[in-house]
Amino acid sequence: MISFFRKFRQKLISENKFTRYLIYALGEIGLVMIGILLALQVNNWNEDRKNIKKEETFLRQIHIEFDENKAQFEKIKAFHFKSLRSCEWMLSNQPFKTVSLDSLRYHSLWSRTSYTFDPSQSSIVSLVNTGAIELIREEELWAALVAWPDLMVDYLEEEKEMRAFTVNHVIPFSLDHFKLYTEEERFDAVLNFDQKQLDKYLNLIARKKRMLQAILIGLADQEHADNRNENSQVVEAIDLIISKTKSKD
After folding, report:
1. Among 10, 86, 202, 235, which residue's CB has the most CB atoms within a 10 Å radius?
2. Which residues neighbour 71 within 8 Å (Cβ) at sequence distance 6 or greater?
């Protein structure tokens, strides 16, 4: 009987040791796992901080770039309006026999001028090409930046078409037939083309007028009642990007 109790006690002691070792081992494993999870969390936190700093850098660059783009866009838009008004003046005052030479010279010049918007896009190109666009957390800003290149293609298409038409048709015709370079010229010497040539010139001016109207005003989409032409969309996009990238400091 005594032998039985001794064996039983030794067995309990042995089992208790095993249990203590098991608990100790599980504790060690738990500590290691907690350490790994904490290390991963700290690493993720550091990466998040780095990404936030990168995003802030990009946002500052974009803000500066689009402030400049807005100033240039407003300047080009003003030039387009001046050219449009001069085209309208030329069409309303032909055949120019009773207008002042200064007015004719001024509007002849502005009716054959053409400008195109040339925005800086280096920050957006860098974001897209490097995949850093995913650093932008603000969804509306992200969408505006992604859509910007395609919006520019659509908008600049009309401007480039107008400029090509002006350079290839309006300017050559004006230089060939208008003599507006000296104040001594008489009105009857200002134009040296006949009615057929005058009609051709007025058709050129009328076409350029329509191109400028399409750029500045656009044509309403009757099916969808959408009056937001590319010009309006560019203004909205620029204002949104400037607003969303403004420093909160």
Report:
1. 86
2. none
Tell me the β-bridge partners of 221.
226
- Answer whether 0.85 is exceeded by the pTM: no
DSSP labels for 12-80?
HHHHHHHHHHHHHHHHHHHHHHHHHHHHHHHHHHHHHHHHHHHHHHHHHHHHHHHHHHHHHHHHHHHHH
Are 72 and 119 a contacting pair, CB within 8 Å?
yes
Give dist(CA 121, CA 144) in Å, integer.
13
- The whole-angstrom separation of Cα 244 and Cα 141 is 6
The model's pLDDT over 105-117, given as tens digits with 9 standing for 90+, comes to: 889 889 989 999 9
pLDDT tens-digit readout, 188-233: 555 555 778 888 889 999 999 999 999 998 754 434 445 557 888 9
Of 73, 85, 127, give the one whose Cα is nearest residue 109: 85
